[in-house]
Design brief:
The chain is of the alpha+beta class. It has 3 domains: about 120 residues, DNA Polymerase III, subunit A, domain 2 (DNA Polymerase III, Chain A, domain 2), CATH 3.10.150; about 120 residues, DNA Polymerase III, subunit A, domain 2 (DNA Polymerase III, Chain A, domain 2), CATH 3.10.150.10; about 110 residues, DNA Polymerase III, Chain A, domain 2. It contains 7 helices and 27 strands. It has a 9-stranded antiparallel β-sheet with strand order 6-2-3-4-18-17-16-10-14. Helix 1 packs antiparallel against helix 2 and helix 3 runs antiparallel to helix 4. The longest helix is centred in the first third of the chain and has 12 residues.
């Protein structure tokens, strides 16, 4: 292999693919990034970089200034990412490989990396057929809203996933994402363009989907789906993820109920007040919200210190005081832009936080406090 490439493009592509490298590779080859170079014509070519750990794969391509010798090599992934990030951007980078090592030269900077055995690298899975397309920014925003509600407890795989559902009536364009960690349920509706009729559903590992969403970039993304795998494909990048068991709670029924008391408040202002008041309390201390006509009072603290702040709000129903764990309350408010509607049925019953347009809902467990 021998090629020249813009070092900035190389660094961006390698960094993106390296996010799919396993933390604890089950085989030495899986710690590597696979580089494949092909010539398009006498003056240009393509470099493809891939990562795979059997649960997730990432494959991306970028244009090269010149591919003098096409080839396929496997390099230590994390080391390559560090090297690519360190390359100066004042000149093109030259990459050349022998049977045992690769040389990356950029200006007067020179690196030599030992090759891993490329023949030991597994074949990446073929992506499922495209089920529909979605705007990358819309998908990233929806994932960001529900991802905090995923659990980190791998002993209950269902709780670590983000559920993806479509309305499936053949005409609708609604895509729903949901997550729960038992203490809250987050649900977001967004729009997409389906290619097939009938309902679709999948349970995607939350940490993988969150990482994928952050690296989607801009433009239209194709979503491929079958009973084992989901694929996200842009113009020159593709990621596949193995699905979790499809079992999931009936989240729609749980985020639909009639509240006896409803408060409407600016989400950002209330989130900021919660953050300020919580400065005098530890992370396990409850944040109390006391709703009265025209005002909500935020309180937190113990014998070491107390904080109180009042904000304007609109209240329908009887006054109520309710308490939440600070992180859950902050996540629920942070997922909402503009006005938040908080539906409550009692001081120790879960409360439903909803955006003004109803596209995002989050059911949060209330704390029992004395």
């Amino acid at each position: 292999m021998k090629l020249s490439i813009d070092p900035k493009l190389l660094a961006e592509l390698v960094a993106w693919a390296a996010r799919a490298l396993p933390a604890r590779p089950t085989a030495p080859a899986l710690a590597g990034l696979l580089l494949e170079a092909d010539a398009i014509d006498a003056d240009s070519g393509r470099l493809t970089v891939s990562a795979f750990d059997y649960d997730m794969s990432a494959r991306g391509s970028v244009s090269c200034a010149d591919v003098a010798e096409p080839g396929r090599i496997l390099l230590p992934g994390r080391m390559l990412a560090e090297v690519a990030r360190a390359l100066p951007t004042t000149s093109f980078a030259d990459l050349a490989a022998t049977d045992t090592e690769a040389t990356i030269r950029c200006g007067k900077l020179d690196y030599k990396l030992l090759l891993l055995p490329a023949d030991d690298y597994p074949t990446l899975p073929a992506p499922p057929e495209a089920a529909g397309t979605i705007d990358a920014a819309a998908l990233a925003a929806a994932v960001a809203q529900v991802a905090p509600a995923t659990s980190r407890d791998d002993t209950l795989p269902m709780l670590t996933g983000i559920r993806l559902d479509t309305d499936g009536d053949g005409e609708g364009d609604k895509l729903t994402l949901a997550a729960t960690d038992r203490y809250r349920i987050a649900v977001t509706d967004t729009t997409w363009t389906p290619n097939t009729e009938g309902p679709l559903s999948a349970l995607i590992p939350g940490r993988h989907l969150h990482d994928i969403a952050k690296g989607l970039g801009h433009g239209i993304i194709s979503i491929g789906l079958n009973d084992k795998m989901v694929a996200f494909t842009s113009q020159d990048r593709q990621t596949t993820v193995r699905l979790l068991d499809e079992q999931f709670i009936d989240y729609r029924a749980r985020v639909t109920y009639d509240a006896t008391t409803t408060a409407t408040v600016d989400a950002a202002q209330l989130a900021a007040a919660v953050k300020r008041v919580a400065l005098v309390a530890d992370r396990t201390t409850a944040i109390r919200l006391a709703f009265t006509d025209g005002e909500v009072t935020v309180r937190a603290g113990d014998e070491d210190g107390r904080g109180t702040e009042a904000l304007e709000c609109e209240l329908k129903g009887d006054p109520i005081e309710i308490a939440f764990q600070s992180t859950y309350l902050g996540d629920a408010l942070g997922a909402i832009d503009g006005q938040a509607t908080i539906g409550m049925t009692g001081p120790v019953k879960p409360a439903l936080f909803a955006s003004e347009d109803g596209s995002h809902k989050q059911l949060v467990m209330a704390l029992r406090v004395s």
